[in-house]
Amino acid sequence: MSMKLTTRQVDGVTILDLSGRITLGEGSVQLRDAIRDLLSKGQKLILLNLADVNYIDSSGIGELVSAYTTVRNQGGELKLLNLTKKVHDLLQITKLYTVFDVKDDEATAIASYTRA
Question: Quick one: 100 exposed, middle or buried, by C-beta within 10 A (0-12, 13-18, 19+)?
Answer without folding.
Answer: middle
